[in-house]
Request: fold
Amino acid sequence: MPVNQKTAYIPSPPFSHRALDQPRLPTTSSAGSNTPTSDPSTPLLPACYRTSSNSTLIPRPSAPHDRFLATELSLHRLNDIHSFLWMAGVPSAPSPLHWHSDKIVIVEQMDYHLVWAPGEVFIKPLPRFLLDPDFWSQHLCYSRELFGSAIGFLLSYTSLIRYESDYRIAKEKYLLPEEVSWQDWVVLVEQILSNSSGYLAVTNKRYIYGVLSLERLNWIYRLIKQNWIQGYLIRRSGTFGGSLKDYFNYYLVVWAFITIALGAMQVGLATKNLQDNKRFVNSSARFASLCVLAPAVVTGSILVRWCLIVLISMLGQLAYLRRRGTAAALP
Reply:
């Protein structure tokens, strides 16, 4: 891809070592024939990808990669709430893989990378195209946004894979391409970190923080973005009991507070001084009535939320089927 001087940004990729030494396979041309193409970047890309409008596209070598890369490296959802990310994480590098090897969950969406939930840490595998210096030169080094997201992601991996034990875990969990050896990784990390000081100013600001709490991200999205149903990422349990289980910890804390408060009021009402205190007696009566209604109100709100999630899912499926029917009707 020719580099436009107005958009040219980084003069060179962050490394020169070629860890991917597999032969590049021929691919089918965009016209759909069996004519092989010689574009060397095609095997580095996924078979297909999905856009924000739920369209499934193929990253073809004859087309610019901007649309694919803008989708693949997008961090706009986290950047939109960056000023609140201090509530979801701390400004530090992520811990190495051997700290949470049994909790790794593979995700392919960039803005879920290094997000944790109880018993789970979401990690995006390192794409092949980010290990090819030629791909960086042709498709990433001309854009501040793409380069910043890609170099931040790459720097996060230098923290995740620090020791050979981390490397072994990464290979077992399919986080690294098969042909990348431990020796290759050591050379890559050395070259990346030796140039990292020059890239700090352009690194995506999401990577100021390491691992982010999914629970806190959900609350931030609900309160700041007013996305009350979905939040940042909803782990769909599929049952009302599962939804109730998600809120069990909150129930436990509230129940403990109510129990202590009611016990204290009961003790107070047993004393002579507070028995004659009308304000205390009235307050105790109101609080007791509220405690009777609160479980029903909270359970009802969760039921309503669960029903809304089901309704939104059904409407989304109907809209998708309608789009498919419209597309099938076109000549």
